[in-house]
Amino acid sequence: MLSPPTSINFTNFIQLRKLFIGGLNMDTNKEQLREYFTQFGPVVDTVVMKDNATQRSRGFGFVTFAWIASAVMVIRNGPH
Protein backbone atom coordinates (compact mmCIF):
# COMPACT_ATOMS: atom_id res chain seq x y z
CA MET A 1 0.00 0.00 0.00
CA LEU A 2 1.29 3.43 -0.92
CA SER A 3 1.54 6.10 1.71
CA PRO A 4 0.06 9.52 1.00
CA PRO A 5 2.47 12.14 -0.33
CA THR A 6 4.11 14.31 2.28
CA SER A 7 3.38 17.99 2.17
CA ILE A 8 6.09 20.48 1.26
CA ASN A 9 6.19 23.53 3.47
CA PHE A 10 7.40 26.92 2.25
CA THR A 11 10.94 26.47 3.62
CA ASN A 12 11.33 23.12 1.86
CA PHE A 13 9.98 24.63 -1.35
CA ILE A 14 12.69 27.31 -1.28
CA GLN A 15 15.42 24.79 -0.46
CA LEU A 16 14.45 22.57 -3.40
CA ARG A 17 14.79 25.54 -5.77
CA LYS A 18 18.22 26.61 -4.47
CA LEU A 19 21.46 25.11 -5.79
CA PHE A 20 25.01 25.33 -4.50
CA ILE A 21 27.36 26.26 -7.34
CA GLY A 22 30.98 25.35 -6.63
CA GLY A 23 34.20 25.79 -8.56
CA LEU A 24 33.40 29.26 -9.85
CA ASN A 25 36.06 31.21 -11.65
CA MET A 26 37.24 33.93 -9.26
CA ASP A 27 36.11 36.60 -11.77
CA THR A 28 32.50 35.33 -11.99
CA ASN A 29 29.94 37.80 -10.69
CA LYS A 30 26.26 37.35 -9.81
CA GLU A 31 25.06 38.79 -13.13
CA GLN A 32 27.14 36.27 -15.10
CA LEU A 33 25.84 33.46 -12.87
CA ARG A 34 22.25 34.59 -13.57
CA GLU A 35 22.90 34.88 -17.30
CA TYR A 36 24.24 31.32 -17.53
CA PHE A 37 21.57 29.62 -15.43
CA THR A 38 18.62 31.45 -17.00
CA GLN A 39 18.80 28.90 -19.82
CA PHE A 40 17.25 26.40 -17.38
CA GLY A 41 14.37 28.63 -16.24
CA PRO A 42 13.54 31.84 -14.40
CA VAL A 43 16.18 32.75 -11.81
CA VAL A 44 14.94 34.47 -8.65
CA ASP A 45 18.31 35.15 -7.01
CA THR A 46 22.03 34.63 -7.45
CA VAL A 47 24.76 35.04 -4.86
CA VAL A 48 28.53 34.81 -5.26
CA MET A 49 30.08 34.38 -1.83
CA LYS A 50 32.89 36.83 -1.07
CA ASP A 51 35.61 37.04 1.54
CA ASN A 52 34.62 39.67 4.12
CA ALA A 53 38.11 41.15 4.39
CA THR A 54 39.09 41.33 0.70
CA GLN A 55 35.67 41.25 -1.05
CA ARG A 56 37.18 38.70 -3.48
CA SER A 57 35.12 35.74 -4.61
CA ARG A 58 35.41 32.59 -2.51
CA GLY A 59 34.79 30.47 -5.64
CA PHE A 60 31.24 29.39 -4.89
CA GLY A 61 27.72 30.72 -4.81
CA PHE A 62 24.03 29.91 -4.96
CA VAL A 63 21.30 30.11 -7.58
CA THR A 64 17.62 30.13 -6.65
CA PHE A 65 15.10 29.30 -9.37
CA ALA A 66 11.41 30.14 -9.55
CA TRP A 67 10.58 26.47 -10.10
CA ILE A 68 11.90 23.21 -8.66
CA ALA A 69 11.85 21.73 -12.18
CA SER A 70 14.53 24.22 -13.27
CA ALA A 71 16.87 23.13 -10.47
CA VAL A 72 16.28 19.49 -11.39
CA MET A 73 17.09 20.27 -15.04
CA VAL A 74 20.41 21.85 -14.01
CA ILE A 75 21.37 18.73 -12.08
CA ARG A 76 20.34 16.39 -14.91
CA ASN A 77 22.33 18.39 -17.46
CA GLY A 78 25.58 18.67 -15.46
CA PRO A 79 28.42 19.02 -15.07
CA HIS A 80 28.51 22.71 -15.87
From TrEMBL:
Subcellular locations according to the entry: Nucleus
Q: Does the keyword Kinase apply?
A: no
Keyword Transmembrane part of the UniProt annotation: yes
Q: Which residues form a coiled coil?
A: none
PROSITE patterns named in the record: RRM (PS50102)
Task: State the protein's name.
Answer: RRM domain-containing protein
Q: What is the lineage of its organism?
A: Eukaryota, Metazoa, Ecdysozoa, Nematoda, Chromadorea
**What are the UniProt keywords, alphabetically?**
Membrane, Nucleus, RNA-binding, Transmembrane, Transmembrane helix
GO CC annotations?
chromatin; nucleoplasm
Enumerate the GO terms in the molecular function aspect: RNA binding
- What residues form the membrane-spanning segments? 59-75
User: Chief subcellular site?
Assistant: nucleus
Pfam families given in the database record: RRM_1 (PF00076)
A GO BP entry is: regulation of gene expression
Query: SMART domains, alphabetically?
Result: RRM (SM00360)
All residue ranges annotated as the RRM domain in the record: 17-80
The source's domain of life comes to Eukaryota
